[in-house]
Amino acid sequence: MIGQELLSDVVEIFEKQGRLIELPKDKTIVFVGDTHGDVEATERVFDRFLDTNHLIVFLGDYVDRGPDSAGNLELILQTKLAHPEAIFPLMGNHEGWAVVTVSPADFWEQLNRQEEQHIASTLSLLPFAAWHPSGVLALHGALPDTDSIEAIQDIKLGSSDWRRITWGDWMDAPGTVLDPGALGRPVYGRDAFETILNRLGLKVLIRSHQPHAPAYLYEDRCLTIFTSKAYGGTHRYVALLRSEKAIRTARDLELVEI
Ligand SMILES: [Mn+2]
User: Fold this and answer.
1) Does the predicted model carry a pTM greater than 0.85?
2) Rounded to an integer, what distance in angstroms lies between the CA atom of residue 245 and that of residue 227?
3) Count of domains forming the chain
4) Which of 3, 133, 214, 230 could form a disulfide with 36 if both were Cys (CB 3.0 to 4.6 A apart)?
């Protein structure tokens, strides 16, 4: 099981780095979709991209569903501790256990009470989003309804904007809130996407969370990627944002199979 010392050590890093990560322009950014206990996916990402030329952003959902949730989470946290400026795991809905339950929750349900509390409180400090100056925002689900990118820094765990970020789905249909998701996942439409993307001055949203969503939505400005085989898929993809490349749409990021 994941050691108490590892948890306490990464807490200090998460508290210092805050809820919104600002990504540098001089590295290639590697975005990794849900891994969900697929530790082989995480190992492949690190084997290939953990070096001084790359910065790795994980889009959340490290536990439940897959074969080795504890191993996957431990590998990510150990690597975060060893390389705090090289990898940035964001919060998915499966990391929000401190405030909301999820299903399936096979990882959380096999922990004893003390482990459950310690891991949940550690993961409750994960950042919500990562922003790149080329106009790209990365997060787990849907866009928060904030006035600025900077306001993401002040979003509270369990709030409506937190729920949008970690639980929100997108659907290729007109409208804003297509389903408020009172009992689960809120669903947002094209009008919500365009209004908020423009208000925040963004070009592209990259996210995961919805394994059956089209990869490209809304004139290629919303990219959904998945990096786990835990849903029965046979391919794992990451997306690369290269520093030298101008970004107009999500097609300007490069999808790479790992
Ligand atoms: Mn999710």
Assistant:
1) yes
2) 23
3) 1
4) 230
